[in-house]
Amino acid sequence: MHELLPVAIGVIIGLVVQQIHSTARRTIALVVLCLLGGALASYINGEIGISLAFVSFDALLVWGGALVVMLISTLWQRRRSTVR
């Protein structure tokens, strides 16, 4: 149940980062926001008090959620542009 929060944060980050047009800035923003999102999710879930290793695990969950949303969004936009 505690894994849903990092994935939800990743979905939000993926939607936000998708709006950045520069590839370099998008990559930097994705890395920084995923690390911050993982730390935030660990803090909210109370896992950060147990071990800092949870931050890296939650950051990976955030990153995975963001990448899935970015992939779906990219495929959706390409499909929309070819259908027209």
Could you characterize the architecture of this molecule?
This protein is mainly α and 84 residues long. The protein has one domain. The chain is 81% helix and 0% strand. It is built from three helices and no strands. Helix 1 runs antiparallel to helix 2, helix 1 packs across helix 3 and helix 2 packs across helix 3. The longest helix is centred in the C-terminal third of the chain and has 31 residues. The mean pLDDT is 92.
Number of helices: 3
Order of helices and strands: HHH
- Gross morphology is elongated
Share of helix, binned: over 70%
What is the number of E strands?
0
Radius of gyration, whole Å: 14 Å
How many domains, in number, for the residues? 1
Mean pLDDT: 92
Poorly predicted tracts of residues: none
Note the main sheet: none
> How would you classify the helix and strand content by structural class?
mainly alpha
Give the terminus-to-terminus CA distance: 41 Å
Quaternary organisation of the protein chains: single chain
Strand % is under 5%
Which key features would you list for this structure?
single chain; 84 residues; elongated
SSE blueprint:
Layout: H1 4-17, H2 23-45, H3 53-83
Quick take:
This protein has helices spanning 4-17, 23-45, 53-83. With 84 residues, it is mainly alpha-helical.
